[in-house]
Design a protein that fits this description.
By secondary structure, the chain is α/β, with parallel strands linked by helices. The protein has seven helices and 35 strands. It is globular, with a radius of gyration of 34 Å. A hairpin with a 6-residue loop joins strand 20 and strand 21. Helix content is 17%, strand content 33%. It folds into three domains: 9-140, no CATH class; 196-301, no CATH class; 354-583, no CATH class. The termini are far apart.
Length: 603
């Protein structure tokens, strides 16, 4: 009888069993995975909803931080407000912490440090989150530098020049002189490089440039005075050393005169990155010494944040503004809020007294800080008149004069309209280039009844001694700053020749536009001509105590720098930083600040 073998069915049964068991296991796993997925989704939803609240709150605090920075830069008190994030208005609070101090760095620059607590609470989909932050607003007055340039700084005077106070450029610095340039300071810094030649003619490295040896306080008369030259090409050559531009940032190899392998013998020169530190270092006699006088990018100098400069424009385009152009009066006139195309520029909007002249220079109007028309009252004092000045630089080959609004400061002092906040804004409609630049002329300004800042989008012409009697904090901010001596009588024309200047003193900080220097093409006149001249100043002293700031190119006063002929001849420049500005309370009204924000704590 044939034997029947049943092995395969048994195997099939076992396979079915295993299959069922596997299916059950998979089903169990799938069920678990779905369960886990649903659980994770719930957790994720919770996190997302909670995260949204957190991110919105933290975003609102960040916006609050920026608002505080902007407010301080605009001389306003930071306040609580609302942040708009993705169409959602989120309230935030700003509370002063009570921290209000002045920090002085090793170079003597003062920074106003103010503390604020920021907070924002957001409830989103049932979840609430509160973001907290402590911040310190740090504001440094730009007028605490003798010289502050955001672009290349060129100093190339013909006659001797003494320059006192901190000198800073956010780009390169070029030092050269026809005679002797003496920098009486312990701070000469460039974010770029310092060169001992002209920018417009790099092969020219002339005269003597000497920088005071480091002292703790260069403003003190009790400190010793000695100098070290920053050698020119010729001065280095006389020592047997060939250079491309003298002893400067291009001197990047150590010079070992006797070849003994070290660089501390007589006649040895360290490369610039080391040598500059050595030459102008604090001497061992100082038990407390900070920093070095001459430093640039080779020494890690970082950019000094560009100071906030409020707009000098009379009006600026703004969507939904409060002013619109009126063709009948040829001026901007107020309209219903939010329906116009322009708003007043920053300084114009803040001025305690505004003087606005029409395009033809035939009439002007005056407004107080509340926008009230006070023209008749101001006119009665004689403090404002209209006139013209022959500006040969702007005129070029033309004989046309620049139209000016003349402000008699002596009469303004007693007019009852001297601005209580110390800010005068004056400008003319119809400004253009050339002789259409328009200007503001300040006369009889030797005495100021209080601190005063004058701002214009046009040129400003300061005539005669300014702020010399019982000196106050004073500044001018303009498209270009022009200086006229005590001898100026307005008789200069295109054919009169140069009038002779007389010794004149100006105690004033200035922010002025300038032109760009183009290598091997044109020179912008350098720092020595940042304030512009119009007379024969030969052998006469132009004394300035204040601060020299250049942060923009002139928009209207675009005439190129030209020397001699009927333009001008240079004075003896006796220029220095006004040490009174070391005390913040003595600064001119509305001194621009470099404002940065530092997080102190976040939770």
């Amino acid at each position: 009888m044939k034997r029947i073998v049943r092995t395969k069915p048994r195997r099939r049964g076992m396979a079915l069993l295993y299959s069922l068991m596997a299916s059950f296991a998979v089903a169990t796993m799938v069920t678990g995975m779905f369960s886990m997925a649903f659980s994770s989704k719930d957790i994720t939803d919770v996190k997302v909803r909670g995260g949204q609240a957190r991110y919105l709150a933290e975003g609102a605090v960040e916006i609050a931080k920026n608002a505080v920075q902007s407010a301080i830069a605009n001389w306003q008190t930071p306040t609580s407000g609302a942040a708009n994030i993705n169409g959602q208005a989120i309230q935030y609070t700003v509370t002063a912490t009570g921290l209000n101090t002045i920090r002085t760095d090793p170079a003597g620059i003062q920074t106003l440090v103010t503390g604020y607590a920021l907070e924002a609470t957001v409830t989103q989909n049932g979840h609430t989150y509160t973001a907290h932050r402590l911040v310190n607003a740090e504001a440094t007055p730009v007028f605490q530098f003798a010289v502050f340039y955001t672009n290349d700084l060129e100093i190339n005077p013909g006659p001797n020049m003494m320059l006192g106070g901190r000198v800073h450029s956010n780009k390169n610095m070029y030092l050269n002189c026809g005679g002797t340039l003496a920098c009486n300071t312990n701070y000469v810094r460039a974010v770029g490089s310092i060169f001992r030649n002209r920018k417009d003619q790099p092969n020219l490295s002339e005269g003597t440039v000497k920088i005071r040896n480091w002292v703790q306080n260069p403003f003190s008369g009790t400190e010793p005075t000695s100098w070290t030259n920053m050698n020119s090409i010729a001065q280095m050559s006389s020592l047997g050393i060939s250079t491309t531009s003298g002893y400067d940032a291009n001197f990047n190899t150590n010079y070992d005169m006797n070849g003994d392998g070290d660089f501390d013998d007589a006649g040895d020169w360290l490369k610039w990155s080391l040598g500059a530190l050595s030459l102008w270092a604090p001497p061992p006699s100082y038990t407390t010494a900070y920093g070095n006088t001459v430093m640039d990018s080779a020494h890690g100098v970082t950019e000094a944040e560009t100071p906030y400069i409020g707009s000098i424009k009379m009006f600026e385009p703004v969507a939904g503004g409060n002013y619109a152009w009126d063709p009948v009066s040829a001026s901007y006139q107020p309209v219903a809020a939010g329906t116009g195309s322009h708003n007043k520029g920053y300084y114009h909007s803040q001025a305690g007294l505004s003087i606005i002249t029409n395009a033809t220079n035939s009439s002007w109007k005056a407004y107080d800080k509340n926008g009230n028309d006070v023209t008749t009252a101001v006119a009665a004092t004689g403090a404002v008149t209209l006139g013209s000045i022959y500006d040969a630089r702007q005129a070029g080959s033309s004989s046309t004069k620049v139209k000016v609004t003349k402000i008699d400061v002596a009469k303004l002092n007693t007019s009852g309209y001297f601005p209580s906040n110390g800010l005068v804004y004056a400008a003319s409609y119809g400004a253009g280039t050339g002789t259409s630049a328009k200007g503001v002329q300040l006369v009889n300004g030797s005495f100021l009844s209080n601190k005063l800042t004058v701002v214009t989008e046009n040129s400003v012409y300061i005539q005669g001694d300014y702020n010399t009697s019982n000196k106050k904090g004073a500044a001018v901010i303009a498209d270009a700053v022009n200086l006229l001596s005590n001898a100026w009588n307005g008789s200069k024309t295109s054919s009169s020749g140069l009038p002779t200047a007389s010794n004149t003193t100006y105690n004033v900080a200035m922010i002025s536009g300038n032109q760009d220097t183009v290598t091997n093409v044109s020179y912008n006149g350098g720092l020595e001509n940042l304030p512009r001249f119009h007379e024969n100043w030969t052998d006469k002293n132009c004394t300035i105590k204040g601060s020299f700031v250049n942060t923009w190119l002139s928009q209207y006063a675009t005439g190129q720098w030209v020397y001699g002929s009927n333009k001008y001849t240079a004075p003896n420049r006796v220029w220095s930083y006004d040490t009174a500005f070391n005390t913040v309370a003595n600064l001119p009204p509305y001194t621009p600040m470099a404002v940065t924000m530092v997080d102190a704590a976040v939770w």
